[in-house]
Amino acid sequence: MTEHELSTLLRERLADPPPARVTAADAIRTGRRQTTRLRAVVAGAGALAVAAVATLGGSGVVGRGDDPGPVAQERPAPVLRTGPLDQVMEAVATDALTPYVGALGEPRWSVNDVLGRPVGVGDPAAQVFLLDYRPAGTPQVNLTVGGFAEEDRENYPFEGACAAGLARGTLADCDETTLEDGSLLTVSVGPISQIGGDSPRLLTLAEVEGRDPSTFAWSRVVSVDSADEVSTRASEYVRGADVGTADWQVPVSVLRELALDPSLLAAEVAHEPMPLFTGE
Fold first, then answer.
1. What is the spatial distance between Cα 210 and Cα 207, in angstroms, rounded to a whole number?
2. What is the C-alpha to C-alpha distance for residues 15 and 233, in angstroms, rounded to an integer?
3. d(Cα 69, Cα 72) in Å, to the nearest integer?
């Protein structure tokens, strides 16, 4: 599996890459090794993660710049798209990201079951969908959608990933908020060892201090773990000597709206429970 996105998708929780093919729910999940592995399984390759904040305007999340606060109430509601999930994801990503990074180019897909094994888009076992783009305007953007089982909430704590990542030094900033319907929204920023590969590694802030910026990337991930057992991750991976100079192209507000898109949160995906990992 690749979505620092649902290797990490179900959140850096069940998820990070992202695709950097790291899906940050992924590494950030709870500080436990079993939770980290969980994300890796779910997200596929490494989602680094992070998920988002319902009220970004006052959260102080690093790398946000002058991004506006929560979407205005008068803004029209997103169109609820129907059809095969891969087509829906491509359409949603194109509409949201193209204005900021230009033509997305050909998509790279990773579709896996709960154990990270590749399956077809229409396979009933398909649980994690990772859509990865490498547009010219930014090194990498990706979108992940995955399912998890109700019992996973007890076996793998969803809250606390931010605190764990910040304590380990793998995140420069992170914030998580529980929405009115019980969904968890998280936003995180942290360094990873590479972008464009299948096995990115989470780095600590100490490891990248003074390092050649061409040898690592910054990941910014907005994730949602919904009350309906669906996880989404919208991520961007860019270069920068430090988090303050990271060349972000996509506003956090746009990543947030993408992760909260109702067409994605209503996705029909498998909900097999994550296997319990114990030991090292």
1. 8
2. 8
3. 8
136: burial class by Cβ within 10 Å (0-12, 13-18, 19+)? exposed
> Measured between alpha carbons, how far is 9 from 18 in angstroms, rounded to an integer?
8
Q: Is 200 exposed, middle or buried (0-12, 13-18, 19+ CB in 10 A)?
A: buried
Element (H, E) at 255: helix 252-259
Q: Exposed (0-12), middle (13-18) or buried (19+): which is 164, by Cβ within 10 Å? A: buried
Task: Characterize the bridge pairing of strands 173-178 and 230-238.
Answer: unpaired
Nearest to 117 by CA among 126, 108, 130, 107: 126
78 — pLDDT class (breaks 50, 70, 90): low
To which residue do tokens 């907005």 refer?
222
Please, are residues 31 and 158 in contact by the beta-carbon 8 Å criterion?
no
> Tens digit of pLDDT for each residue in 121-168?
999 999 999 999 999 878 899 999 999 999 998 888 788 889 999 999
d(CA 214, CA 61): 24
State the residue for tokens 């909900």.
271
| Banded pLDDT at 196 (limits 50, 70, 90) | low
Phi/psi at 79 (5° precision) = -75, 135
Cα Rg for the chain, rounded, in angstroms? 16
Q: How far are the Cα atoms of 41, 247, 260 from residue 67, in angstroms, in the given order? A: 32, 14, 17
- Reduced to 3 states (helix: H, G, I; strand: E, B; else coil), residue 147 is strand
The two tokens of residue 47 are 């989602």
All structural domains of the chain, each given as residue ranges with its CATH number in brackets, are: 85-266 (3.40.1000)
Helices (H), 49-137: 85-101
- Read off the pLDDT of each residue in 19-41 and give the average, rounded to a whole number: 36
